[in-house]
Amino acid sequence: MFGFAVATAACTFSACDNEAKDVVEPAAIAQTDSQNGAIISGQYIVVLKKDENLRMSASATYAQRVGMVREIGKNILEENGVKDFKIEQTYGLTVAGMAVRLSESEAAALRSDPRVDYIEPDRIVMLGKPGTGGGGTTGQEVPYGITRVGSASGAGKTAWVIDTGIDLDHPDLNVDLSRSVTMFTSGRDAESANDLNGHGSHVAGTIAAKNNTTGVIGVAYDATVVAVKVLDARGSGSYSGVIAGVEYVAANASSGDVANMSLGGPVSKALDDAILAAAGKGIKFALAAGNESTDANNSSPAHVNHANVYTVSAMNNTDTFASFSNYGNPPVDFCAPGVSIKSTWKDGGYNTISGTSMASPHVAGLLLLGNIATDGTVKGDPDGTPDPIAHR
């Protein structure tokens, strides 16, 4: 399970017993029935070659680009004998392509079309079962992670949270309602970018919770957050929907803005290419390394490397590497607090959860404030090359 968190527990699995005297590290606990990374049967992401057929004026709008790709895509499908097709998503900026339902034989035929660059199966992205959010707080507290990495005003800065949405009227968050969007087209998650899960709101709070008199404070406190909902109330979505979210950010964000992605799964060239293209426009990405206790090079988007892309592992409050965190140098750039992190939650609440999902937004906040410095290295990094600890 990649880039998610559940409610913090005192002990996990066999890590503690009745005679244990030490406090056991809370874990990002995976659901045993998780479908994260599972192939969506019959659904494919088709990426086209950017040749003369797809050339368009630099002044073309994003809608014009998407429209052009959609028409070319429809022609390619029809010419290859694909009937009764439904294009689920169309991409025209970071990658040129579409998500479409196909049979195996239809997909094979398309792979032979000289206008097609590559085809890959669409996959499920699924977070762990969400924890329970608490109510409001009395007074304002500074979570230990914020103290560890440092904080400052992020007023006037913008972070794009590609996640489960954000609690749009949370009193501790400055949410840009006009630019917040949902990538879902049916069901209750299609109604708005409001967070029905909690995960995205938690990420947003660590980045930018207000410096006021209640709740918590974020790394780049008072910054603006934009919800880009690609995961539903269950924390579930698809790679094709995540790519659509990256496309939306690439089309609407400004150079210097920051996007956080606390999600992922098996390697996807289409997702990787989308992020690389968006990063090339000057948008900075903070990516969760993942929670499988394995090499982050095996996960997308965690393994993406670019000057504007930062992959983040997790540690606890003693600067010790979190047992659940993925590792690897490259792609990991920094380590940040990810164990027992308190932040904002859905329905105006607050919650304390763990995961590399919680480490990544610490770095996203620092990126909003400027260049990242470091303060020591994490203890117990399993790859033998201790990650530098991100700091303001």
UniProtKB/TrEMBL annotation:
Xref: Gene3D superfamilies: Peptidase S8 propeptide/proteinase inhibitor I9, Peptidase S8/S53 domain
Upper lineage: Bacteria, Pseudomonadati, Bacteroidota, Cytophagia, Cytophagales
InterPro entries: Peptidase_S8/S53_dom (IPR000209), Peptidase_S8/S53_dom_sf (IPR036852), Peptidase_S8_Asp-AS (IPR023827), Peptidase_S8_His-AS (IPR022398), Peptidase_S8_Ser-AS (IPR023828), Peptidase_S8_subtilisin-like (IPR050131), Peptidase_S8_subtilisin-rel (IPR015500), S8pro/Inhibitor_I9 (IPR010259)
Family, similarity comment: Belongs to the peptidase S8 family.
Xref: PROSITE patterns: SUBTILASE, SUBTILASE_ASP, SUBTILASE_HIS, SUBTILASE_SER
Pfam families xref list: Inhibitor_I9, Peptidase_S8
The UniProt record lists the keyword Transferase: no
UniProt organism field: Pontibacter saemangeumensis
Domain Peptidase S8/S53 intervals: 161-367
PANTHER family with a match to the protein in the record: PEPTIDASE S8 (PTHR43806), SERIN ENDOPEPTIDASE (PTHR43806:SF66)
Sorted UniProt keywords: Hydrolase, Protease, Serine protease
Record protein name field: Peptidase inhibitor I9
Residues annotated as the enzyme's active site: D163 (charge relay system), H199 (charge relay system), S357 (charge relay system)
Annotated ranges, domain Inhibitor I9: 43-126
Keyword Magnesium listed: no
